[in-house]
Amino acid sequence: MANESRPCPCDIGDRFDYEGCGQEVQVEHVKAYVCKPAASTDKAVIVIHDIFGWQLPNTRYMADMLAANGYIAICPDFFVGQEAWKLSNDWASFDDWLKTRNAAKIDKEVDAILKYLREQCGAKKIGVIGFCWGGAAVQHLMLKNPHLKTGVSLYGVIKFFEDRYSLLHPTFFIFGEKDDIIPLAQVTLLEQKLKQNCKVDYEVKVYPGQTHGFVHRKREDINPQDKPYIEEGRKDMINWLNKYL
């Protein structure tokens, strides 16, 4: 039932049949997918994957969309070689699986990626977006990392970072109204706490009728009723990055 809290396990949605326009690179101890825009730029966005990992075609599609909008986009393997979650896995083992993949323990990888973007790609203004597990990671980075300019957290699991709201950088939070992993009560509380504690720009937006993962896990061509919200979420994400990068 919608809006009853349950653990992060989520449906993969529509798996995109998508090859990607970028290339895989090795950045210190991290593998990463990189896609660059046609024109040179000093703006870059780190894309943080969900539980299904850095090779999910849907996430690469989003990285390529950022490149098409003028950003160097990089999607690193934040599980650092550990297996991504598979739909064939037993959900009962999810909590144990998650213990070795902490969304707040990615600082070493982020530092390596920031160095690569600055030194190898000429990036000066760097933001971050993330989905689900990665959305929680965005919130962690917005609370801690001084080198990022802005972040977009897409249906980031709020319970990972309860009681931490003093963001360092402008942050945009995207949620679906019918998300059965993130109850609306949690979203309302997040808004209240940000209002009380946050000194930088932020926005929390709930998209009507939308379920968990709608921006990157739903194909707009086969979900006509959701198409306006999928497109709106993607456009809002790009507009936020354009504003702060």
From TrEMBL:
Dienelactone hydrolase domain mapped to chain residues: 31-245
A Pfam cross-reference name: DLH
Bilayer-spanning residue ranges: none
Keywords in alphabetical order: Cytoplasm
Subcellular location per the Swiss-Prot or TrEMBL entry: Cytoplasm, Cytosol
GO MF term list: hydrolase activity
Any Gene Ontology CC annotation: cytosol
Main subcellular location of this protein, as a coarse class: cytoplasm
InterPro entries: AB_hydrolase_fold, CMBL, Dienelactn_hydro
PANTHER family registered for this protein in UniProt: CARBOXYMETHYLENEBUTENOLIDASE HOMOLOG
Similarity comment: Belongs to the dienelactone hydrolase family.
Name this polypeptide is given: Carboxymethylenebutenolidase homolog
Species name: Bubo bubo
Source lineage: Eukaryota, Metazoa, Chordata, Craniata, Vertebrata
